[in-house]
Specification:
- With 510 residues, this protein is an alpha/beta fold.
- Helix content is 37%, strand content 24%.
- It folds into two domains: 161 residues, Rossmann fold (3-Layer(aba) Sandwich), CATH 3.40.50; 320 residues, Ribokinase (UDP-N-acetylmuramoyl-L-alanine:D-glutamate ligase), CATH 3.40.1190.
- It has 19 helices and 18 strands.
- The protein has a nine-stranded mixed sheet with strand order 10-9-6-13-14-15-16-17-18, sandwiched between helices.
Length: 510
Amino acid sequence: MDTTFYSKIVPLHELVVHLEHRREQGRTIVQSHGVFDLIHPGIITHLESARKQGDILVVTVIKDKDVRRGPGRPIFPETLRAESVAALQGVDYVSIVDDEEPFECVRTIKPDVFAKGQAFKERDRKTDQKIFEEEREFYFGKSKIYETKGFSLSSTHIVNNFLQIYPEETQVFLKNFAARHSFHDIVEAIESLRDLKVLLIGEGIIDEYHYCSAMGKSAKSHLVVSRYLAHEVFNGGAFAIANHLAGICDKVDLVTLLGRQDSREEFIRENLKENIVPAFFYRDDASTVIKKRYLDQYLNQKIFEVNYLNDDFICESLERDIVSYLEARIPDYDIVLVSDFGHGFITERIKEVIQKKSRKYAVNTQTNAANAGYNLITKYQKPYFVCLDESEIRLAAQQRHENIRLIAQKIQKSIDTKYLIVTLGKKGSIGIDNSHEVNMTPIFSSKVIDTIGAGDAFFAFTAPCVAKDFALDVVSFIGNAVGALAVQIVGNKRPVEKYELITFMDAMLR
């Protein structure tokens, strides 16, 4: 082993400086990018082939937090993975990089050649179509994409087939699921969602995360004094759901409520995807709903939350305008999604229009500190699909201890819904349909950064699947995969993208 290999590992900002000097010397830069969890013959062949395409071979290793290969991955921490790659003679530089947005480091490094391995090449082309074809210039700029020679052997295939990294329950589930459904068929089904006509109705929320560090106890009162460090602002609530939907549907229409006192409209518009068409209605007696959460920066723990909202129902004149708007448009949509946060937007009349005019409608009634016990799914009748978490359905059934399967069956019957899925946290999810099929799907996440927004992501991806009448177990599988990705994102900082969902599912089903 080369004892100098540690010097090859450099931070990304230093790497960029090194490469600028190399370019000035006329050197050609080649980049390979990935997890590199196991160094095996397929990896070595790939890197040797990549090395021949230029003078300098750079390998970027994805940080642990951004690895999306299913439960238990990566096997080895980022430092060991980087050291293993650096120990290979043909590698000149190694950098451990963020990959929150796929291939974001490529735009920073700007290699002359990006080396794409056989595992990418032989995987269903639709998995990588968005990255390598539809938005090639955005991700790779002017870099030439080179498919390396050799044979296909991925770390994921080795892990899934020879190592027991999943809990036994998950291992059995994935084996049985893969016997019923092929990865190719699931990808084709997800692609079919693009042409759905989708309307989302619900309260938009501005999420603010304020990061602090504890300084100590106040001398004059019983409280901990904290120092402000930084803050981030995200589109949450229906805004976040719309952004998730826009990744799988070509066009998403949004009907939501803003407050004139502090609308944040410019920020909201700037942070909605381009294929979202919003219809904003305005209440005069409030701001747009704003939820400020204060966190300990180092423990990544939420300390307390302050809500800015008026949860009284909107006035009658505004209600009439919204009802008139919806009555004229709802029948045109394949599916109407209702994200009901219980903050005064969805009145009885608006609910009645949704129920009467929709071809199919899906509902998520949120339980939160502002509405606990007052915003129950039982106020809706005959929804096509309902998505709730365990506390929300137990409140609706007024049953704290009863078996969750019995509760799900009771609520499904009482509101007459065709599909019902309940997310159960660490226990995965339970799904039930009107044929009385019950489906239990285990959890797919092994690391959790933040659970805020995970339920919204689950609802956003599963409702269109239900509209297309996917099999119940496929809907639950997709939902749990999305949930596993969503809990790795801070709040609603960004949506779960179709590309990373497909990559994640591919890793689990190999």
